[in-house]
């Protein structure tokens, strides 16, 4: 349950209703449990199971759901696909191979965009998933409006049931939420001004001049440009610049030999305690 | 192994080198096997394991890899992360939570684009994955240039190790291949021309006029527009139009009562045997 925060459940509740996941004759309860887990990861909650009585209650399902018991407990069982999908207004069938049916085929990302649009318009979307070994039958696929398939390595295309649910759920969650990562780089101290960056250049280059670092005068200008570009690529904050001043000073101070001076040439930008 | 086609291995071999997957102290051999399977799905092959001797050879790993033995057998073991990542030129750390490190954070899709660009420029990319329960330590994350995290339901954020590898592999494969589905809607018979579509309108509307379907003369025009739009949305092929002519004819022919006529009004577009 690493990373789970149940207090944030309200945020997920504000998402539009995600697609119903309709499992047709799933063979292993463990897979049904893994599907429930994948659904929970992406805020899907409507699990429907066709002709697999007991599979959501089995111990194997509970264990593999890794705590997504609420999805297993709310799952509904049906005797036919037609009953399971009766209320849905847009139905996708998932298949691993082309079945020669005259039906539009979407990758998960495009399917998720259609799902989000359809749900935003008040429609109710669902996804049909077939049996672990044999998938959906052709007549079952014909019940759907569209087909979803997965861009996978053709040399090794065996996605298991829960992985297929995971990928569609992931794309749906991205489409519904904008796909921003769950956190961002923390706000750092204010960015350094150009004057503060130039002050670091002066400090560093002054010390390097003292040591005779720029042995070849004709290359000095291009070496300095490179060093300045390296520092710019760091995008240093004011605090980063202070740290760099400190590093330059410490290296210069500790330097043995005729130029070792036991002092800093330039003051830091502000007192370190303020950082 | 449904959907797998080993003869297509050459196609995957033409992809740029995918990211190395570096597992730091994985705890369960089964998870290492599931990681190998997820890697194979998306044509990743470079598995590196840090401080988990024997985990790739264990029976549990082989079983859960579902045939991706080649990846387990080629996996390399290391005693330190530093050794495992020594040759990589761009390293991402995966984390479920913000760790307060001043490092850019990418969702998997953005990370995959950077990986593909970097690999296209001759670089070698890798991804660090932490322990199942506790993830990566802060000092381990500090080894990476960037962080990848997953847009997941904050109320249920527990992605397992193989699912995390699956999502990054999926996004990498999309970025490297363009993300087209593995197959498309089959080529149908040539699309119907406007003349052929208008001929169907004439056939259908003629039959409907015969039956008195348009009871309200002032609504006839708008009803006909709706019916024509329905047929256009079908995007009918020439063969679909033939089928529709056949349906209209069959329904009209079989109709009992004064208008039942036992004949078709219009010939099909071409002989059914040619279809």
UniProtKB/TrEMBL annotation, chains A, B:
<protein>
    <submittedName>
        <fullName>tRNA/rRNA methyltransferase</fullName>
        <ecNumber>2.1.1.-</ecNumber>
    </submittedName>
</protein>
<dbReference type="Pfam" id="PF00588">
    <property type="entry name" value="SpoU_methylase"/>
</dbReference>
<comment type="similarity">
    <text>Belongs to the class IV-like SAM-binding methyltransferase superfamily. RNA methyltransferase TrmH family.</text>
</comment>
<feature type="region of interest" description="Disordered">
    <location>
        <begin position="253"/>
        <end position="275"/>
    </location>
</feature>
<dbReference type="InterPro" id="IPR001537">
    <property type="entry name" value="SpoU_MeTrfase"/>
</dbReference>
<dbReference type="InterPro" id="IPR004384">
    <property type="entry name" value="RNA_MeTrfase_TrmJ/LasT"/>
</dbReference>
<feature type="domain" description="tRNA/rRNA methyltransferase SpoU type">
    <location>
        <begin position="20"/>
        <end position="170"/>
    </location>
</feature>
<dbReference type="GO" id="GO:0002128">
    <property type="term" value="P:tRNA nucleoside ribose methylation"/>
</dbReference>
<keyword id="KW-0949">S-adenosyl-L-methionine</keyword>
<dbReference type="GO" id="GO:0005829">
    <property type="term" value="C:cytosol"/>
</dbReference>
<dbReference type="GO" id="GO:0008173">
    <property type="term" value="F:RNA methyltransferase activity"/>
</dbReference>
<dbReference type="GO" id="GO:0003723">
    <property type="term" value="F:RNA binding"/>
</dbReference>
<keyword id="KW-0808">Transferase</keyword>
<keyword id="KW-0489">Methyltransferase</keyword>
<dbReference type="InterPro" id="IPR029026">
    <property type="entry name" value="tRNA_m1G_MTases_N"/>
</dbReference>
<dbReference type="InterPro" id="IPR029028">
    <property type="entry name" value="Alpha/beta_knot_MTases"/>
</dbReference>
């Amino acid at each position: 349950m690493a990373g789970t925060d149940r207090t944030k459940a309200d945020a997920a509740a504000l998402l539009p209703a995600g697609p119903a996941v309709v499992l047709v004759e799933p063979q292993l309860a463990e897979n049904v449990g893994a599907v429930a887990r994948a659904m929970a990861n992406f805020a899907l909650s409507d699990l429907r199971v066709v002709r697999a009585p007991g599979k959501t209650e089995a111990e194997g399902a509970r264990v593999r759901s890794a705590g997504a018991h609420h999805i297993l407990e709310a799952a509904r069982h049906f005797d036919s696909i037609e009953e399971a999908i009766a209320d849905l207004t847009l139905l996708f069938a998932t298949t691993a191979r082309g079945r020669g049916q005259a039906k539009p085929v979407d990758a998960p990302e495009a399917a998720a965009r259609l799902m989000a649009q359809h749900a935003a318009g008040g429609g109710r979307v669902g996804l049909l998933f077939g049996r672990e070994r044999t998938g959906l039958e052709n007549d079952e696929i014909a019940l759907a409006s569209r087909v979803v398939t997965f861009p996978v390595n053709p040399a090794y295309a065996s996605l298991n049931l829960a992985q297929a649910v995971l990928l569609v759920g992931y794309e749906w969650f991205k489409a519904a939420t904008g796909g921003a990562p769950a956190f961002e780089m923390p706000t750092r101290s204010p960015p350094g001004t150009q004057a503060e960056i130039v002050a670091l250049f002066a400090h560093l280059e002054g010390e390097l001049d003292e040591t005779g670092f720029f042995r070849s005068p004709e290359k000095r200008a291009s070496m300095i440009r490179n060093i300045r570009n390296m520092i710019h690529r760091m995008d240093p904050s004011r605090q980063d610049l202070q740290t760099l001043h400190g590093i330059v000073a410490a290296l210069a101070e500790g330097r043995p030999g005729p130029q070792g001076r036991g002092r800093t040439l330039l003051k830091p930008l502000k007192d370190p305690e303020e950082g």
